[in-house]
Amino acid sequence: MRGALYASVFISFIHLFFSVTCVPQNDYFDEELLLKPLPSGHVFAYFQFTTIWDLESEATFYQHYHLFPRALGEIVGWYNVQELHISLTAGLWRYEHWGYPVHDAAPGAEMWAWFKEDTKNVDTTWRELAGALSGLLCASLNSIDASNSLNPEFTFQLPGRVSSRAVNSSYLRYATLPREIVCTENLTPWKKLLPCDAKKGLSTLLNAGHIYNTNYHSLGIHLRPVCRDSNCSQISVELRQTLSLVYDMVILGIGNQDFSIKKLFGIGLSGACPLATMSNIYIDTTLNETGASFKLSPPPPAVIASSRGGYESKFAVYDVKALGIDGMFNIAAFYSSPRVHGVNLPPVLYANRYIIGYGQEYGGIVTKVYNGLWKPLDVVYLENIPWFIPLYLHTLKIVANGKEIKPLLKRYIPGKARTRPYYLEVALRLPARSTTEIYIEFDYVFLKWQEYPPDANHGFYIGAAIITALLPVGRNYTGLPQDGSTISSSFNASRDGYLVQIRTETLIITMPTPDFSMPYNVICLACTVVALAFGPLHNMTTKRLRLKDEGGQNHLISLLKSAFKRSSEKKEKRS
Amino acid sequence: MALKKEETSDDFAKVEDNNDARRVYAAISFVVVLIVIGLPLWWETTDVYRVPLPYSRIAALDSLDVTLAMNISITTLDAARGDKLIEDLKDILKTSKLFQFTFRALPLEKKHFALAHSPEGLESGSFHPRKSGELFLLEVPGLTRFTPNHVMVGLKRTVYFSSEATAVKLSEVLELLLLREKSLRQMVAAMTTPTETDQDRSGRRRMPAAEEYDIMMTVVNPEPEKLQIDWDLPEAVQDYLEPFLYELSPLAGYTVKSQWLYFVTLNVQPKLVIDTSGFGHQHYALAEDLLPQIITPLEKKLASRVSRNPCLNFVVYIPPCEAAPLHIYTRQGVRVKGGVDAFLSPRWGGIVIHNPSHMVCHNSSVPEPKEYSPDTVAIMGVFLAQLRLLMGIPELEGISRVGQLPLSTVSLRQWEFDSLLRMRTLEQLTSAKLTLQSLSQLLGKISNIVINDAVGNSIYQVVDCVERAAHLLKIGQLDEAFNESKKAFLSAEAAFTDPSLLALLYFPDDQKYAVYIPLFLPVMIPVVMSLKNICAWFSGRMCSKHKLKKE
Question: What ipTM, to 2 d.p.?
Answer without folding.
Answer: 0.81
